[in-house]
Amino acid sequence: MKVKIYHNPRCSKSRETLQLLRDKGIEPEIIEYLKTPPSAEELDGILQKLGIEPRDLMRKKEKPYDEYDLFDKSLDRETLIRAMVEHPILIERPIVVAGDKAAIGRPPENVLAIL
Which of 7, 25, 49, 94 is the most exposed place for a label (fewest CB within 10 A)? Predict the structure, then answer.
């Protein structure tokens, strides 16, 4: 099974999740999403695998969240996804994708359920 991690090496939870995968003998494809953000289509697919809505994946304390009024409940799914693609700092991390499943590694042990 191919496993991907949307990773931020500066984030302790992201580093812990990556180490957890490696401890399980899994060497995932590492995507440093701040350098290489997912496309809108990829992010939509990840959201579907997670079973959540875009706002549920957003880091609401990051500057762009308030700066672009992303708290506005009238914003549609496409607009929120586009905001995360344009400002990947808004994407919660880490995200692990394994086949047709995904999990947010907060806490890192969450990813064990999809392996």
Answer: 25
Question: 78: closest CA among 105, 34, 47?
Answer: 47
In angstroms, how far is the first alpha carbon of the chain from the final one? 9
Arithmetic mean of pLDDT, 84-108: 97
What pLDDT is attached to residue 76? 97
Q: Which residues are catalytic?
A: 11
Among residues 2, 6, 1, 3, the alpha carbon closest in space to that of 105 is found at 6
Over residues 7-21, the mean pLDDT reads: 97
Q: Distances from the Cα of 4 to the Cαs of 12, 18, 32, 75, 83, in angstroms?
A: 18, 10, 10, 29, 22
Is residue 49 within 8 A of residue 100, CB to CB? The reply is yes
What are the structure tokens assigned to 53, written together? 């809505």
